[in-house]
Amino acid sequence: MRAIIMLCTLFLASASTADTIYRKVDANGRVTFSDKTSGSTGEAPVELESATSRASRNPYDAVFNPVFETSSRELSAGKAFVATVPGCPAPMLLTAYHLLGPSGGLNFQLTAAQIKAEVRKIRLYTLKSGTLAGEGRADSHMPTIVSSCCDATNPRTSAGDIAAFTAPAKVANLALPLAILDARKGDKVFILTSLSGRTDTTFSHEAIVSGMQDGYLMYDITNPDYAIRATSGAPVINSKGQVVAINLGGGPQQGGKRGYYGMGNPVSAWKTPLSNTCK
Question: pTM value?
């Protein structure tokens, strides 16, 4: 025990001697820190978190109610979350692509190119208190070809229903890691979201994966009183806290069963296309 305490003390002491700390992200998405004299990446300096701050965080702290400012209006729909994408120098803000269309209040679905041109700024509000957590310019990381799960006339593409932007700097340190593999049938997963019209502070909702269908991850939500509305874009995580899918919605259970099923865009569909936007 004493040796562990000494190691922690030495680390904190050495970190405090550096005037400026720079973040470095390797090709596998691992984040390390170094001072300027040991070879920085030229990125803006960031503050080191204390161990207490990290321990007090919950996975749902990385999830927000987003407001997208376009050239013509503001869109406030669904959820968005911050995640670390392998091969990319900064965390991304991820959400469901279909929210930037009729599902979000527009008359038509924006294309990937239109999102890059039209979405100018993003504001993020916390699930717990509704306060402004961060805001910034909407730097698009949209894959070239995406598809909306809500449009039956638009065949699913490899990346599927996803929209991506550089995360505002103020919330970047909250980023969730991505899972290496998709969740499998029988796995327990959790949808991180607030529920529309509810005042409780339960932001993690258990579900059991039932399998894959037409390229979507399907899961049965444990709570029969779960509410589907306004949960699109929320992350679905595994028991390790890794993102396995982007929640896209769901519906009532069939066959007289009470409750809901959910469907998500699995991480295997969009992880590589997102990494490619950083090359």
Answer: 0.79
Average pLDDT over residues 140-149: 92
User: Looking up tokens 């009729």, which residue turns up?
Assistant: 102
Q: Where are the alpha helices (DSSP H) in the chain?
A: 2-16, 51-55, 112-118, 267-276
Per-residue burial over 8-36, b = 16 or more CB atoms within 10 Å of its CB, e = otherwise: eeeeeeeeeebeebbbebeeebeeeeebe
The type of residue at 173 is: N
Q: Give the integer Cα–Cα distance in Å for 235 and 153.
A: 26
Question: Which tens digits make up the pLDDT trace of 174-222?
Answer: 999 999 999 999 999 999 999 987 777 789 999 999 999 999 999 999 9
Q: What is the mean pLDDT of residues 127-131?
A: 94
Distance CA 39, CA 192 (A): 37
Q: 211 CB contacts (<8 Å, ≥6 apart)?
A: 185, 218
The answer to whether 264 and 245 have CB atoms below 8 angstroms apart is yes
**Which residues are bridge partners to 87 per DSSP?**
none
> How high is the mean pLDDT of the chain?
82
User: Cα-flanking dihedrals φ and ψ of residue 271, to 5°?
Assistant: -65, -50
